[in-house]
Specification:
single chain; 345 residues; alpha/beta; 8-stranded parallel barrel; two-stranded antiparallel ribbon; 10 strands; 14% strand
Length: 345
């Protein structure tokens, strides 16, 4: 397992992190993802740590807090060996104070997460979504105080637009507050929008990416095939409406190439898809989930080897889509590439 800087920070994180969305199993979405209990979670943590996967990601909305509770119990006695990443900001109830990232909500959310996780600090705390109703100065000053108090160590965001992230970074610089060092984003071979604007922003401003749903919301598992019905056991029957949309023709074009490269490398389709992501600019860590130890072992097979340049180019070509406005016009102009070399996103 390789370790990488989390953005432009001093924190080293494993290239693969474990996503604990399968822990707890409450609600229509997370119940479909998995219902891992504490005993099962301990086995998964054992395998993860043996492989060098030392970072575990969760959120307060995952199974209504049960994911944090199960993770905290599974990590008992080995807290100092791991990094914990969690998120807050999405609605957790119907009350006026149950959503957003205002000062009171953030303080309460951190305190509640610390209790559920059975810990005295959160290594990486991220805002789960942008709160347009709260001034960025209120959000950042609150997070800065929580860092000063030792309750969180690094701050980041998830699912922000480029202007939302840049506005916050500028405010942090202006006031001398802690900057966001990580952006947790959706990015996959069938969802490359992150590379349009957020990746160049991350590269310029030192914000690393933690990638969620790297297998395209479960579509790049190797079990979904052109002309075949969705497998009965697929969680997409119950969860597709919650995830990012995907064009079927794009999906199957990518799967065709993944099949070819899997045969060439002796690795599985998802291992190839994950390995491609690990080579992308700004990616600090790719979050993988698992309902069983065997699924985790399969995901761990994505590291320790590299796709060659020709294989990466084939996957790039198969997954490429036309850039929307305002990204496409200038890239068509002669000479643009000479003065604006693109990131290999």
């Amino acid at each position: 397992m390789e370790f990488r800087r989390l953005g432009r920070s001093g924190l080293l994180v494993p290239e693969l992190s474990f996503g604990a969305g399968t822990f707890g199993g409450r609600g229509p979405l997370f119940g479909a993802w998995g219902s891992t209990d504490v005993a099962e979670a301990r086995e998964i943590v054992d395998v993860a740590l043996d492989a060098g996967m030392t970072m575990f990601d969760t959120a307060d909305v995952y199974s209504d807090g049960a994911s944090e509770e199960v993770l905290g119990a599974a990590l008992a006695g080995r807290r100092d060996r791991v990094l914990i990443s969690t998120k807050a900001g999405l609605p957790t109830g119907d009350g006026p104070g149950d959503a957003g990232t205002g000062r009171g909500r953030l303080i309460d959310a951190v305190e509640a997460a610390l209790r559920r996780l059975r810990t005295d600090r959160i290594d990486v705390f991220q805002l789960h979504a942008h709160d347009a109703g709260t001034p960025v100065e209120e959000v950042l000053s609150t997070l800065d105080r929580l860092v000063a108090d030792g309750k969180i160590r690094y701050v980041g965001v998830s699912n922000f637009a480029g202007w939302e992230l840049m506005k916050s970074l500028a405010a942090a610089d202006r006031h001398g507050w802690n900057r966001y060092v990580v952006h947790q984003v959706y990015y996959s071979l069938i969802g490359r929008d992150y590379a349009r604007e957020l990746m160049p922003l991350g590269a310029a401003e030192g914000v690393g990416a933690m990638v969620w749903s790297p297998l395209g919301w479960g579509r790049l598992t190797g079990r979904i095939r052109r002309g075949a019905p969705l497998p009965e056991a697929s969680r997409l029957h119950r969860t597709a409406e919650f995830g990012p949309p995907v064009d079927d023709e794009l999906l199957f074009s990518v799967v065709d190439v993944l099949d070819e490269i899997a045969a060439e490398t002796g690795h599985t389709v998802p291992q190839v898809a994950l390995n491609w992501l690990l080579r992308r600019p700004t990616v600090s860590s790719v979050i993988v989930g698992a309902r069983t130890v065997e699924q985790l072992r399969q995901n761990l097979g994505a590291v320790g080897w590299r796709l060659d340049a020709e294989q990466i180019a084939r996957l790039d070509a198969a997954s490429a889509t036309e850039a929307p406005y305002p990204y496409f016009p200038y890239r068509r102009q002669e000479g643009f590439a000479r003065v604006n070399p693109p990131l290999a996103g």
